[in-house]
Write a structure and sequence with these properties.
heterodimer, A: mainly alpha, two-stranded antiparallel ribbon, elongated, B: mainly beta, 5-stranded antiparallel beta sheet
Chain lengths: 306, 423
């Protein structure tokens, strides 16, 4: 048995089974309680990660005007541009490694095996077949409370947690929470290519999560959903609504002639960091808004023709 | 991600690709473990019957095996698919066995018919001459993991739907008894009483005629093992890591409930609490001793009169012990198969242990402590003992499924037969 299993998987699995047993033998309640417990334990790390990310974003917004100036100044000398950009980042206290820098890396490295173990614990605890059940015997402590609730009863609300959601409610909810959560932390970018990539990610990731939830036992879907909601709540307290209601920045947005960021014009509805202001250009915040624009233009053209 | 502005789009692409790779990795990690199961062999009139994980019944004519050159016996008739394998083959069926599963239980032969329970929940029979059954399968509401049992003209089948069914030999229901949990073990019949263990933490004693409950014995965890009835006692171990001795139901008690009397709750006579994991297999009674394997890799030898007393230090094996021990009385040997793929033959008199580690490719027995180059897959299925000829038949299963005939006296594999290669 691997060291990671002993350190992470076994404790989480046993606690999940104890919680299930204590919560009236209801595996759904056990999954909910464990998800909340794990997220509470990891809360300081999550907050540290989000704050670090927020700080970096704010610093980025501060240097953006200067960066634009550098781009114009050294348009024909990429090597010099790179050097000057690095210098600028250094002055602003921004790590060139972005999210790969400490403490974000540290918190990610610590959290990842815990999430993987949580995911695997939910799968293992549901041991639906005799051989899965036998395998489970090798991961359990001698705690009576962990064993007494076995085999777990997978019925919870309309779900059989061993099987995928037959009504597709969970996959849809997981997709929506994933979309909202990502939208909250993604800041509109003045870089068209970056913006396009952000938009694609904002669609692809929720779709992928929804698809995975659709194919997996709904016990995991329940974990994805609750985990997504908790992430949203934590993000709200760090970022506010963040980029959720913000429109994308047009090229050069956020830069005034004096090179200072336009903090006062940040989205006033948001509670979080200053979102780069929109400089009257057409919104292109997401694939949906792009499609909406195209639709409106078509409608306008049609009306003109009429 | 935030390297320089110039490298950002490229990094975003890398991030997307990394996410897709992660999803692919997750998918691969979620693919199924190899199918296992524990369909054990049965020998009747020189024919060996065994069920396969693919849902087929195989009948091997043992007289056709050439023991000089290891030629395996020839199937008496074309192996028949009697149960469609059940199981998902979805790529994302994480943690669940997606390889199909057909038959777990050991077949039972009676009056020219082979009876068995299948993982798809069907109880059925086919003729020993290979012709299809005369009646439709009896469908239970859940997978049948244990074996069916025949007592007189009644067949008992326990299902994962939590119900014990009593059927006549044409598979018509006589009565059924509901428990509150899945039943994965085999019922045992003794003196007009059928004993069945359930994952609802109870062992039940039920009157075979009326289907009425005589008593129940409650533990603090699921019971997945098959009870043993011997010496006027019922021996059973559970997932609470305890092994119990309980007084068997008496004729007076049976008649009382048959006449409408109320069932009672039974206590245990003695209990063994020294095991490190769950009891999964049926025990064996021999010479005033109870031999029982445990998932903590040990074989325990307990006093049949008082199971709290260990009469010998536990015999360790290299893996979980799922399969019940078998006895060769003439040789005074108890033989046990283990998850480590080895056979352990213990001399009851001298307490000496012979470990047979068979190389999966050369089929040669390797002397301990030397290890075979190709380890034999785990032994999950019950062994079948040919006590006259000193041969133990066992079905080794884990991805590849092979039936072995092993002669204890010469320490050699007489023949082997790949049951997963059957077309």
């Amino acid at each position: 048995m691997g060291v990671l299993n002993i350190i992470f998987l076994q404790p989480i699995l046993n606690i999940l089974l104890v919680l299930t047993n204590v919560l009236f033998g209801n595996f759904g309640l056990g999954v909910i309680a464990l998800t909340i417990l794990v997220r509470l334990i990891l809360m300081p790390l999550t907050i540290m990660q989000l704050r670090s990310s927020k700080k970096t974003t704010e610093a980025m917004n501060t240097v953006k005007p200067k960066l634009e100036q550098l781009k114009k100044k050294y348009a024909k000398n990429p090597q010099k541009l790179q050097q000057e950009t690095m210098k600028l980042y250094k002055e602003a206290g921004i790590s060139p490694l972005g999210c790969l820098s400490s403490p974000m890396l540290l918190s990610t490295v610590i959290q990842l095996p815990i999430y993987v173990a949580l995911y695997r614990a939910i799968i293992q605890a549901q041991a639906a077949t005799p051989q899965d059940f036998l395998g489970l015997s090798q991961s359990l402590y001698s705690w009576g409370l962990a064993t007494q609730g076995l085999p777990v009863n997978g019925h919870f609300l309309w779900l059989n947690l061993v099987n995928p959601d037959p009504y597709f409610v969970l996959p849809i909810l997981v997709g929506v929470t994933q979309y909202v959560s990502q939208k909250m932390i993604t800041q509109p970018s003045s870089d068209a290519q970056q913006q396009s990539m952000n938009s694609m990610m904002q669609i692809m990731m929720p779709l992928m999560m929804a698809f995975i939830t659709f194919t997996l036992p709904s016990g995991l879907g329940l974990y994805f959903l609750l985990s997504g909601i908790i992430t949203m709540v934590i993000q709200y307290f760090i970022y506010g609504w963040g980029g959720l209601f913000a429109k994308a920045a047009a090229p050069d947005a956020g830069a005034k002639q004096d090179g200072k960021p336009d903090k006062g014009k940040a989205d006033t509805k948001t509670k979080g960091p200053a979102v780069p202001p929109v400089a009257g250009a057409k919104p292109a915040g997401s694939v949906f808004s792009g499609l909406l624009d195209r639709f409106k233009r078509k409608e306008g053209d049609k009306k003109k023709r009429d | 991600m935030m390297l320089s502005e110039t490298t950002r789009p490229r990094l975003s692409r890398i991030l997307v690709l990394a996410l897709l790779a992660l999803a692919a990795l997750a998918a691969v990690g979620c693919t199924a473990a190899p199918s296992r199961g524990w369909s054990g062999p049965l020998v009747s009139d020189n024919v060996l019957y065994v069920g396969t994980i693919e849902g087929k019944i195989v009948a091997l004519d043992l007289t056709t095996a050439d023991l000089n050159d290891g030629t395996p016996p020839i199937p008496l008739w074309d192996p028949q698919t009697v149960a469609e394998p059940k199981g998902s083959s979805s790529l994302f069926s994480c943690g669940r066995v997606s390889s199909p599963m057909g038959i777990y239980g050991t077949p039972v032969v009676k009056n020219g018919r082979i009876y068995l329970g299948a993982y798809n929940g069907d109880v059925l029979w086919i003729s020993t001459d290979g012709s299809a059954g005369g009646s439709s399968p009896f469908q239970t509401g859940g997978a049948i993991v244990g074996s069916v049992v025949i007592d007189g003209d009644t067949l008992f089948a326990a299902s994962s739907d939590g119900t014990l069914y009593a059927l006549d030999l044409n598979l018509k229901e006589i009565w059924h008894f509901d428990t509150n949990g899945e039943i994965w073990s085999t019922p045992v019949v003794n003196n007009g009483v059928v004993y069945v263990a359930s994952s609802d933490h109870n062992l039940y004693a039920i009157d075979t005629e009326s289907g009425n409950e005589i008593w129940r014995f409650q533990t603090k965890a699921a019971i997945m093992s098959t009870p043993l009835v011997a010496n006027g006692r019922v021996y059973i171990g559970g997932c609470d890591r305890k092994f119990y001795s309980i007084e068997a139901a008496t004729e007076e008690e049976r008649l009382s409930v048959a006449g409408g009397g109320s069932p009672t709750v039974r206590g245990f006579q003695s209990v063994f609490e020294g095991a490190g994991n769950w009891f999964w297999t049926q025990a064996l009674a021999y010479n005033g001793e109870i031999w029982v394997g445990n998932l903590d890799h040990n074989i325990y030898v307990l006093n049949a009169q008082n199971v709290a007393e260990e009469v010998h230090e536990a015999y360790p094996t290299g893996g979980m012990v799922y399969a019940p021990p078998v006895v060769f009385p003439i040789k005074g040997l108890i033989v046990v198969g283990s998850q480590d793929g080895k056979l352990y033959a213990i001399n009851v008199g001298t307490k000496e242990v012979s470990v047979y580690a068979i190389d999966a490719e050369s089929e040669e027995v390797v002397e301990s402590p030397e290890k075979p180059k190709n380890r034999l897959p785990p032994i999950f299925a019950p062994l079948c003992a040919d006590t006259v000829n000193g041969i133990v038949y066992f079905h080794s299963q884990n991805g590849t499924h092979t039936l072995y005939a092993f002669k204890l006296s010469t320490r050699e594999v007489l023949w082997s037969f790949r049951t997963d290669k059957i077309k």
